Amino acid sequence: MTESSSNKLLNGDACQRSSKDKKSGKNGFVKNHCLFQQPQKYRRLREKNHNVVRNPSLYNKPFVESFEETPLLVAVLTYMGYGILTIFGYLRDFMRHWNIEKCSVAREREAQKDFVPLYQDFENFYTRNLYTRIRDNWNRPLCGVPGSKMDLVEQVSYDYNRTFQNTGKIMRNVINMGSYNYLGFAENVGKCADAAIEVTKKYGAGICGTRCEMGNLDIHEEMEELVARFLGVESALTFGMGFATNSMNIPALTGKGCLILSDELNHASLVLGARLSGSTIRVFKHNNMVSLEKLLRDAIVHGQPRTHRPWKKLLIVVEGIYSMEGSIVRLPEVIALKKRYKAFLYLDEAHSIGALGPNGKGVVDYFGLDPKDVDIMMGTFTKSFGAAGGYIGGSAELIEYLRSHSHSAIYATSMPPPVAQQIITSMTTIMGEDGTTLGADRLRQLSENTTYFRRKLREMGFIIYGNDDSPVVPMMLYMPAKIGAFGREMLQRNIGTVVVGFPATPIIESRARFCVSASHTRETLNTALEAISEVGDLLHLKYSRYQPTVTPGMGWMSEESYLQD
Amino acid sequence: MAFRTPTENLAWLYFQYLLVTGLYVLEPWEKSIFNSVLLSVAAMAGYTSYVFVPVHLRLALRFFSDVFGGQAESAVALVS
Ligand SMILES: Cc1ncc(COP(=O)(O)O)c(C=O)c1O
């Protein structure tokens, strides 16, 4: 809803020129030094734009990313479904208001009746009347390790998801397609677990002090050294929480008078950090380099609003893999733009570190670029490493500055030693420094699984978003009832999936998100795929109208790149 | 999907209807409200067309035959 209006604002003045400029817009924005090129309605033309490598000379491999357009009929039916649910939502709200029905959710207190209402906005309405109805798909208690298989606590609800009761039974060996366990390090046996146990015996469970005071252990220093070596940067700093790494370090880096250029689909932690910093924030369209360049140019030409002083710093904030779209950042182009316009680059590799690249070193490795070109390399240990926490890597100067200025470095308690050891062991395994090929095997397994899983789903006729190499695989469901139905049907077939709806995605683009892991064997994946296909037939989810064999064209290979000018 | 019996086929169609309209997530009494409203609207539309469409068709037919048929006749009369 808000999105379409902002689109209109962004595109408003450029619309008339659309047909004329579309051809030259592919690359012409640099050649004729013109702004407002390639005006486009983001959602509608997405399919075409994203399949095109605009500057192929920057890439060392084909960059294939697809976002198939929503079929019109499906979009209409989806809106209709939401319409019907909204009508019933209003009916239920009406009944609650007149006490025909008992209200089981938070509501205004009688004593505060005449105050500003707290539970009236759309989000609350949505939670009350739409989310609650299919709430059984989320927040499921789990017993045991969420590896490739997991055990779930069985729950039932006798009052349409208002409350849940445990039946006392456990659903065993549910195939886990939902965890960010890319390299399969979420284990409670094996080398990592043993090492963590040893370290717990040596250091204890944690030190209740900050890194600046009593909390600094040799194991932390060792870990930071290792992280820096792994990333190929001068120095690194680690934190006990990934979310706080973003939300507390961006404010340390930028402040008033700085401009943050942020991708529209950036993670909540990045958004929070950017807002806390007090800098001006401008949002560019997802992975759209034309939009980013336009914002950069505008920033340089016009400077700060009203005073027209130049911005103190320009910071581009992007993620490696976007966890909802499965897309990979166009890093070579971002770096080219960053160099051209002298901006800084903050890269959040939460999902890509360990999961991408021949050596598991994230997007930089994937594109074969120099890590020094990225000013701030951020990432988390929560996903691929099966641990917790986050890091920042970069030049020694930057890290020294952050060490003394970042809130999460100064005030947060240091990382528990067993977690640090888990990181050290899993990282050395990935790097092959433990003398085995276990890490390399896992990396290969992950990339094979990813390719296989994506190819199969596409062949079955599902609409799959994102890059072909991304282990995050979003599969479109669209209709609100299908979110609930898909989760439930899959769980009946003993497969745990993550379904995602409105606040995390645009309202009509509900999806199921599979995360492929190196711990999935071919049989596991085949079982899952069979079930997905079956449920897909049952729920009529095979929306795709594209032939699976057609690989999107590389028709612009011959066009010159903007690096050559 | 292969269906063996027509009942299965119907059940699948009803399931699709539930999914597309979003009724799948509603409680049974809400489902029945929606279905009854939809059915009564459809029934009324059906009944209305049953009652009025033949009348309208007859009127239209007469009108067009007046326009074309009648004119030709009078023209013939004039000429003769
Ligand atoms: C892009 C991104 N950044 C940061 C985080 C936060 O990491 P953590 O869960 O370790 O706090 C996440 C986690 O979901 C993420 O997806």
Describe this structure in words.
The complex is a heterodimer of chains A (565) and B (80). Chain A is α/β, with parallel strands linked by helices and 565 residues long. Among the domains of chain A are: 3-68 and 552-564, no CATH class; 195-431, Type I PLP-dependent aspartate aminotransferase-like (Major domain) (Aspartate Aminotransferase, domain 2, 3-Layer(aba) Sandwich), CATH 3.40.640.10. Helices cover 40% and strands 14% of the residues of chain A. Chain A is built from 19 helices and 15 strands. Chain A has helices at 2-11, 18-21, 28-31, 42-51, 72-97, 122-131, 191-203, 218-231, 242-253, 268-277, 289-302, 331-341, 363-366, 396-405, 407-410, 417-431, 438-460, 480-492, 522-539; strands at residues 65-66, 149-156, 165-176, 235-239, 259-263, 280-284, 314-319, 344-348, 376-380, 390-394, 466-467, 472-478, 495-496, 498-500, 510-515. In chain A, strands 4-10-9-8-7-5-6 form a 7-stranded mixed beta sheet, with helices on both faces. In chain A, helix 12 (331-341) links the parallel strand 7 (314-319) and strand 8 (344-348). The longest helix of chain A has 26 residues, at 72-97. Chain A is globular and about 65 Å long. Chain B has 80 residues and is mainly α. Chain B has a domain at 26-79. In chain B, 85% of the residues lie in helices and 0% in strands. Chain B has 2 helices and no strands. Chain B has helices spanning 6-21, 28-79. The longest helix of chain B is centred in the C-terminal third of the chain and has 52 residues, at 28-79. Chain B is elongated and about 60 Å long. The model of chain B has no long low-confidence stretch (mean pLDDT 85). Bound molecules: pyridoxal-5'-phosphate. The site of pyridoxal-5'-phosphate has 14 residues of chain A, from helix 9.
